[in-house]
């Protein structure tokens, strides 16, 4: 019997034209850096927006999702939040991510009101929300009681019959993994959720959950949500692709917008990722740590300046380049973006038009600037340790 060759995906065919090894800045045109640009008011899918399966499930989500943590922050009015959500839907985004850890319960309440007011069909959008716990909360741990009560409370706040994906935010070392997976299986069997996943779990914890699910015949997790940007790459590029290939766990990323403005010595404004600088607790010597910190800050500013210059040559801003760079990596099935205004969301979505122009040459130039491509450490032979 003859085997038929697989058909290439049409989603990536448009990118083949830009795979030369040479940098090409001849078509440097603006991607919407003007804040006064006209925003579409009619429902038209944004050029470059694609729909992918989340993990190895049948759930199709847009490759760009909307993170609601900045939308429902105290500085954003209800009218403005509604305008952002309507723009997202009009642009083709079908996934909304909620997190009690960042915006409290307000996000679920406000989103539920907007959905009811807009009259969107339940089949047209995907809701992901988190079961969060911390040592500062009275509701500690991931016990069966806390999981079920949290899901029921979220459903009541959202005014929805079910949640598409429930993410367990941070693992609980004090709770047996069997109890967690059995509780999530119960939530799904009751129809309160369609799928479940994890957020900020280590690969070891994800594999332990999967093993317990197989052992006790429970529904397995389909996605891990984790930070990913130019300065945070190891987990996303080395370990999560392995999780996808082995057990079908997909990757939902956040991070390109988790950057803050830093002031360089020259007075220039540069984008520096939060958390990129070491804290004093990471070194035994305070003086040594201060020296290392100064060197690291200097290196980060140099890299950020070079990335900013490259973005200027490509006709976009640094954040747009960061978004396109993240989406260029195959393991990213959905990238979460946030916004505090419709204009900001529109500017971020323009980064999708940059994807075909990120040729092999441009990607190699970014790698040359960053010099932080993660490499898996070589295996250690047990015989050599004897």
From TrEMBL:
* Cellular localisation: Cytoplasm
Recorded GO cellular component terms are:
cytoplasm; voltage-gated potassium channel complex
InterPro entries from the UniProt entry: K_chnl_volt-dep_bsu_KCNAB, K_chnl_volt-dep_bsu_KCNAB-rel, NAD(P)_OxRdtase_dom_sf, NADP_OxRdtase_dom
For this UniProt record, the keywords arranged alphabetically read as follows:
Cytoplasm, Ion transport, NADP, Oxidoreductase, Potassium, Potassium transport, Transport
Record domain NADP-dependent oxidoreductase: where: 64-370
What's a single GO BP term from this record? regulation of potassium ion transmembrane transport
What domain of life does the UniProt record list for this protein's source?
Answer: Eukaryota
Q: Which SUPFAM superfamilies is this protein grouped with?
A: NAD(P)-linked oxidoreductase (SSF51430)
Query: Among its keywords, does the record have Disulfide bond?
Result: no
Q: Which CDD domains match?
A: AKR_AKR6B1 (cd19142)
One Pfam family assigned to this protein is: Aldo_ket_red
An example of a GO molecular function for this protein is:
voltage-gated potassium channel activity
* Xref: PANTHER family: HYPERKINETIC, ISOFORM M
Family from the record: Belongs to the shaker potassium channel beta subunit family.
- This one is known as NADP-dependent oxidoreductase domain-containing protein
Higher taxonomy: Eukaryota, Metazoa, Ecdysozoa, Arthropoda, Hexapoda
